[in-house]
């Protein structure tokens, strides 16, 4: 039995459309499945937990939505050692990007999921919450805070508007970053702890992150001028920002970050620093191309 978890409001309604398509795909394959959904994160969590507790054998969870839905599902499937596949229907879809799937070839992804065994992938654990892609703090977290409060504009433009509002008034923060082999005390504009490569809808903030190496890639953006930030920003979409002298990349299994700032993981608010994060090798089961 498969769990087909659908967030109908993902991607401004795209979740419902793609969810219907995936259900039809499963029907054509004559595969048993149960649709799990909800009108809020809390209700969806409760419905998924009930399904997993009452099903003797779950082949896997196919989640139709974005990284917000991924965050919800991970908390349920990792402790139960159940595989997860995310079919992209959200705004960012960064977990799918990090795994290397094409966003517009759902059939190929579903064929792999339904015919091949899942493989072990690393997952991040931050203060008791699982995450798959990126834990971050600094400018991007400030932008997320504002974007979550804006009712307009919708979709990705909400984040662009938030960047335009926050950048002129943003100031670097003082951070202590405790790693496996050292402690970095520095001012920084942004810190990204990458299990995966991508966040923010395709920004390759940790372009060399590997979900099977047992380590986080930690990207630190040291202070630069606002003009320099605007100039360098587009290069993050191809991962070329790591060549800038203000960017530092280190690797570590455990990361502890202290500052007067907030943290987000997979686009979801974790809370105020300090935070403790650890890369757990093989904790997640999923499919890669």
TrEMBL record:
Keyword Magnesium tagged: yes
Family matches, as InterPro entries: ATP-NAD_kinase_N, Diacylglycerol/lipid_kinase, Diacylglycerol_kinase_cat_dom, Lipid_Phosphate_FormReg, NAD/diacylglycerol_kinase_sf, YegS/DAGK_C
Keyword line: ATP-binding, Kinase, Lipid biosynthesis, Lipid metabolism, Magnesium, Metal-binding, Nucleotide-binding, Phospholipid biosynthesis, Phospholipid metabolism, Transferase
BP term (GO), one: phospholipid biosynthetic process
Annotated ranges, domain DAGKc: 1-130
SMART domains for this protein: DAGKc
Gene Ontology terms, MF aspect: ATP binding; ATP-dependent diacylglycerol kinase activity; metal ion binding
A GO term from the CC aspect: plasma membrane
Pfam families for the chain: DAGK_cat, YegS_C
Cofactor(s) named in the record: Mg(2+)
The protein, known as: Unannotated protein
